[in-house]
Amino acid sequence: MTRWMPLFQSVKQDWETPPSLLEQLYPAFPFDLDVCASRANVKAGVFFSPEDDGLSRAWRGLCWCNPPYSDVGKWIGKAKQEAEAGAVVLCLAFARTDTRWWQDNIPSASVVTFVRGRLKFSGMGPATAPSALFMFGEPTPEQVAALSRWGWTVRQIKQGPRRCFAGGFDTGGYTRAHFGLTRLPRLDTFR
Ligand SMILES: C[S@@+](CC[C@H](N)C(=O)[O-])C[C@H]1O[C@@H](n2cnc3c(N)ncnc32)[C@H](O)[C@@H]1O
């Protein structure tokens, strides 16, 4: 049986992360594992290839996940699940806020950054949609600060015993310096 396939369907799977993005994130994100990669585009010391099948493996430590374009939902669902088991996962995907995978998983993310402008993926030119970085698992303040340099960033704060308030908002212990907000007068009450 003949099936019609969209032209270039397979080519679109590998939106390799722009090196400039990770170079700026690495100091705060020394990744242990790239959960989906090939030898040609790996972004951490250890990686799962299609032959390993990262979807069927346990993820450990600080993980990087820029998933294949075709199966984003499965990978982001897996990232959320692995964070519940102790991993910390930073993901990069298109900000498809209307999709089921976004609606089902992103409310569990601890940090979401809506990337300013269009990323230029290696060898692909500018992205065809806006991108987001999001994290599952507890971030450090340095990680939130690093992400916030890439665009508007929201942090989900878990209620804990130590609270820090500024201008009526619970900052979750983050200081003005963590966000580079030194010139905003309304935030003068930050420590
Ligand atoms: C969007 S690219 C990201 C590559 C690289 N990690 C990066 O950030 O630039 C997705 C990668 O996932 C790999 N991949 C596809 N299916 C996979 C699977 N089941 N397990 C592991 N890797 C897979 C592809 O070979 C491809 O290199």
Descriptive account of the structure:
This protein is α/β, with parallel strands linked by helices. The protein folds into two domains: 145 residues, Rossmann fold, CATH 3.40.50; 32 residues, no CATH class. It is built from four helices and eleven strands. Strands 2-1-3-4-8-5-9 form a seven-stranded mixed sheet. Strand 6 and strand 7 form a beta hairpin. The N and C termini lie far apart (68 Å). The site of S-adenosylmethionine has 19 residues, from loops.
What features would you highlight for this structure?
191 residues; two-stranded antiparallel sheet; binds S-adenosylmethionine; globular; 18% helix; 2 domains; Rossmann fold; alpha/beta
The biggest sheet, with number of strands, parallel, antiparallel or mixed sense and barrel status, is: 7 strands, mixed
Fraction of residues in β-strands: 15-25%
Uncertain residue ranges: 1-11, 183-191
Order of helices and strands: HEEEHEHEEEEHEEE
The general outline is globular
CATH class identity of the largest domain: Alpha Beta
Quaternary structure state of the chains depicted = single chain
Count of helical regions: 4
Helix/strand-derived category reads alpha/beta
Mean pLDDT across every amino acid position: 84
Global Rg:
18 Å
Which strands sit side by side, in order, in the main sheet? 2-1-3-4-8-5-9
Helical content (DSSP H or I, runs of 4+): 10-25%
> What is the first-to-last residue Cα distance?
68 Å
